[in-house]
Design brief:
The chain has 69 residues and is mainly alpha-helical. It has one domain (2-68). It has helices at 2-25, 30-40, 42-46, 49-52, 58-68. The longest helix is centred in the first third of the chain and has 24 residues, at 2-25. It is elongated. The N and C termini lie far apart (28 Å). The mean pLDDT is 82.
Length: 69
């Protein structure tokens, strides 16, 4: 299960980094940034969470923390 969560985490980080690249090129308000993150990165993070959600997965929480800060 940890390999699957790691793979999803890596894919979500890739989507997050692509969003940061877009945000650095154009001016976007905070609300739009949150909508884009919720639309593009969160589905990757949560894919299969109904199966692995019962396990401790701190690496998934790190993506949310990094984006908010």
């Amino acid at each position: 299960m940890s390999n699957t969560v790691k793979a999803l985490n890596d894919q979500a980080l890739k989507a997050y980094n692509q969003l940061l690249h877009v945000f650095s090129r154009i001016s976007v308000d905070v609300k739009t940034k949150l909508v884009l993150f919720d639309s593009l990165a969160v589905p990757i993070i949560l894919y299969g969470s109904n199966v692995w959600g019962i396990y401790s997965t701190p690496e998934i929480d790190k993506i949310h923390y990094v984006f908010v800060n």
